[in-house]
Structure formats: C-alpha cells, structure tokens
Amino acid sequence: MATFLVASYQTLQPNSSDTAVLLLSQISQQLVALSNGTRSPAPLTLPDATSFQPTAAAVRVNTLWFVSLGMNTACALWANLMQQWTRRYENVTNRPYARPKRARIRAFFAEGVEKFAPVTAMEMLPVLLHTSVLLFYIGLIDFLLHINHTVAFTMLALVALFVLVYFVLSVMPLYFHNSPYHTPLTAVLWFIQEAAPLVKLWFFKRNEAVQRSMLEGREKIARGMHRAFEKTAAGLTWEGDAQALKWTLMSLDEDHELEGFLDGLPGLFRSSTHPSSPELRTALESPTEPIANKLLATCSSGLLPDSARRQRLMVCLGAIWCFRQTMERHFNAVREQWTQCTATNDPWCPLSTETWVIAANMTADSDPVTALRAHCVQALIVMMRRYGRWHCPKSERSALLQRQLGISSHIVERFLHEDYLQLAVAANLLANALPLLRKMEADGGPATSLKVEVKKILDSICHGLDASDVPDDLRSRFVDPADVLAVFHVRDPASRAGRRRHRTAFDMDGPWSKVFASGTGTGEVRRTPVRLPSLTRLTWAAASSLMTA
C-alpha cells in the first residue's frame, strides 16, 4: 500500500516537473526560430502554484488509500494493546498468593472483564482490517479507471467475485449453525434477521401472544448470536451424538485410547442425557464390536500384566453389554456352556470373574432385557463352579456371592457347606426376574420368549436338588406362587375378538417350583400343569387352591 501512496499522493500538489517541461519546450521553440531567422514565439505563461486544484479522482483515490492505511496501523496498535492487556490479566490473576487471596483477586478482575467486555474490543480488530482491505480495492479500481479501462474492469470483476464469496461466507452461519465460516458481517446480518420480526410485531395489536413473542425475541438478541448457536447444538438429537462418537472412535489408534473410549460407554448410556437411547446404541454397535473383539484378543496373548489384562477384560465386556445383539450372543454362549457342557467359540471370555462383575453392574441397566440377561449370566456363571469350569479364589468367590445374594459371608459359607447355594441362586434369580418381566409386558417387549428362557434356566439350576428341610433364612427368599402366576400368564393376541381366549400354560410342577414359597412347611409342593385363569379374577387363596394338590 505504501508504494501506491507514494505514486498517488503527488497528484494532490503541483508537479514541478511539469514547469520544467514547459520551460524546456519554450527554449526549444526559441532556438528553432533563431536558426530559421524567424520571429521567436511569445513566451509561455507558467502555471500559478496557488491556483492548482487536484482532480476529483485524485482526491477520492488518496482519501480511500490514506483511510485504509490509517485503519491498518490502528489494527496493529489495537492488537498490541490487546496483547498487553491479556498478559497483564494473566500476571495479576496468577500471582503466587494463597488460594483464598488468589480466588478473590481472580473474581475481582473477572468481574471487570465481564463489565468492560474486552471480547467485543477484540472483535473490532477483524472489522477494521476487513474494512481497510475493502477501501484499498475500491481506491485501486478508481485509480486504474483513469489509466486503462481493461485493467480496471478486470480488477473490478475479481473484486466483485471476492465480495460475493465474502457475503456467502457471512450468510452461511445463519442457515447452517455449525458452519465454520464466519465474518464480522455475520453478527450484523444475524441481528437484522432477529430484529426484523420484532419490527413487524411492533405494528400488530399488542395482545398477550404478541408481547410474549417480542419478549422472547429481545431476550434472544440480548443473549447474542453465539449463545443462540450453542442452544441449537445443545438440542441435537441422537444422530449428532452418534456421528460425533463414531468420528472420535475412528480417530483413535492406540490400544489405551480405544480402551478409554470403551470404558466410557456404560456411563454414557446410564447418564441423564441418554437413560434409554436404543437408536444411539444401535448406531454405535457396529463400529464398537470389532474394536472390542480386537482388544479382547490381546487379553489372551500373554503379553499383558495380569492387572492390565483384567482391567481390559472388564472394559471390553462392559462395552459389549451395552448393545443388544452382542449381549445376546454373549448370553447364548454362557447358556450353551451350562446346558450342553461344551466349549464355546464366544470371543468374549464368558467364564471369568470379570464377566460376573460386568453382569452385576448391568443388573441395574435401564433396559429390562439387558438387566434380565445380566441376572441370568450371574446365576449361570456361579453355578458353573459346580462343574469345575469356573475357577475362582475362595475369598473372591465369597465376595461375589455376598454381592449377588445380599447375604453375609458366614451365610454364604453355610450355603456352600450344606449344598443350598443353587437354591439360593435360583430363588434370587426368580425374585429379580419377576419385576423385570412385568415391566417388559407393560412396555410391550419380548416378555413371552424371555419367560420361557428364564423357566428353562431355573429348571436346569434346580434339577436334581433336594428342597426338603430348607432352612428358614433360605425359604424366606422364595417367591410367592401368586406372584409367579401373576407374571407367567401369556395370552394369545390373535384370539381376542369373539373367540375363546387361549393362554400359554407353564408347567408349575417343574424343578423350578422348588423355589416357590409354600404355606405347608414342606420343602416341595406337588403342583400340576394349569392353564392360568385371569389374574384380575384371582385371589391369593384361589391361586393356592389351584396350585396345591
């Protein structure tokens, strides 16, 4: 810009070189006349310096360029001042004083920052700089118009293109609030966009709705453009969260980074923002499962210390239990080992203390299916100890059983010694399953198939057990037969209109009946398979008479 100013400012004053040219021209004419013997021409009249007037174009160009130069230098000075003010604030608020004194100093100067709004002063820097550039280009086009029209119009086309792009970038955040493009003009356009409806409402009749709309509009303008955009981001649906989490997962490379991501998934789905988000879980399941399998493979490599291996096992198992399909495969693998006593190809190490701990954590999940699966896995893994397929230290086993059954350590040891542990585990499973099945029925979930699975698991646990002479503290944990009847009645939805209602009959006389409470004091009550009557017409006495032989 300085080069252009050196060339243009001279047009504002008389040019001494023009006077020299006139004098040399007069001398040349006189010499020609003398050589030809003719009369010399009349002397030229030199221009008066006091009567000089610069052209309008020269005044415009120099005005634009000198204003642009002034704005540039003001930007440099303003930036230097802002840097000094920021450094001063940091020095004052970070003095090595005691914490209470430092907190008071920081609060005092932070109040000044809020009051005098240095952020607004910082935002003036790009405004001055962009205005300076615009004034320079306007002056340049005016300057070229008096030199060469082709060059001037070419430059005008380029500047018009730049202005159009600048305007589009300024408008984009108004329609796409996550747009990274932003200019000082954006805030002005946003203000106009928000203030225009208020001006229109000003001419309407002032009823309550109009006044409320005007108040909301003024409050929105008072909060500012950035707060309005933040409010839009805070109101995003699960799609935005899923996209952000996928991007985060794909950007991680190291095992410890992936482990940290998986470790946060259970907390995410238990948080208040995502208490039950099946869409988000479904969206994250496909990218998360291969990562969990990859990390689980490192747990069997023998290269990790035992503490790190167990921590990684728990993190990976907790992550896969957040998703319905992977959890179903894990549950089926555990159940297969119990029912068929065969090996499994499950990559998630089902027979481990870590699996039990994760299942215990998931029993409080907001999804009733996940919670029910967790209770079943807990029961099955503990029972696999009977077949020697789950080796757990005695102290650790006692702590796990205390947590699962809610009993003291000496009661756990007594149940183990007297061989009542399986009955206690089965009774605990049925007691926890009943409310979850009720909730699934109320929500229209897959309660029927899960009832069948729960009954099969209970039958397999209770098979061959002697339920006679059960101690009172264990019998108190048995469920009421009326509660079982209330839950295990399944109506056929296809037989509602005018046809006889059909209900799925559950065998109430199977091995699982050993964990039903009995009023007779004997260990096992003989029951026959029944087609359950409607619970709304069933009293507890009627239920007992139907179930007792």
Overall pLDDT score: 76
Question: What's the count of strands?
Answer: 2
Largest sheet: spatial strand order: 1-2
Percent range for helical residues?
A: 55-70%
Helix count, per DSSP?
Answer: 23
Shape: elongated
Oligomer: single chain
Secondary structural class: mainly alpha
How many angstroms separate the termini? 106 Å
Number of domains: 3
Report Rg: 43 Å
**Residue ranges: pLDDT <50 for 5 or more in a row?**
343-350, 490-503, 519-549
The fraction of residues assigned to DSSP E strands is under 5%
Report on this structure.
With 549 residues, the protein is mainly alpha-helical. The protein folds into three domains: 11-189, no CATH class; 194-234; 238-466. It is 68% helix and 1% strand. It is built from 23 helices and two strands. The protein has helices spanning 2-8, 16-36, 56-93, 99-116, 118-145, 149-175, 184-202, 208-223, 225-234, 238-250, 255-270, 278-299, 306-320, 324-340, 353-362, 368-383, 394-405, 409-417, 421-443, 447-462, 472-475, 481-487, 540-547, and strands spanning 490-491, 503-504. A two-stranded antiparallel sheet has the order 1-2. The termini are far apart. Mean pLDDT is 76; it is low at 343-350, 490-503 and 519-549.
